[in-house]
Design brief:
There is one protein chain. By secondary structure, the chain is α+β, with helices and mostly antiparallel strands. The protein has a domain of 54 residues. The chain is built from two helices and three strands; from the N terminus they run E-H-E-H-E. The chain has a three-stranded antiparallel β-sheet, with helices on one face. The radius of gyration is 16 Å and the shape is extended.
Length: 82
């Protein structure tokens, strides 16, 4: 898809986003019964810094969790081609 007016973009368009975060479920997670044991989502970033900042934000304990709740996702930094 082409961009009609690239000057209107809030941030630059990167054609290559080699840095990623793979999000998956830990083994035995009950949520896997709903989405499947092989569920995963990958987020791609143009720079390693962007990826690392997003990884920190995604893996932190959110303030609205109940006492004792912990994130039940596995976050893995990845890079295309390696």
């Amino acid at each position: 898809m082409t961009i009609c007016h690239p000057h209107n973009l809030r941030r630059p368009v990167y054609s290559s986003k080699p840095f990623g975060i793979r999000v998956s479920l830990p083994p035995g997670d009950p949520f896997a019964r709903l989405v499947g044991a092989d569920w995963e989502k990958t987020h791609w970033f143009a720079t390693e810094r962007e990826r690392d900042e997003a990884l920190t934000e995604m893996s932190r304990r959110y303030p609205f969790f109940r006492i004792g709740d912990e994130p039940a996702l596995v976050f893995e930094p990845i890079r295309k081609g390696s």
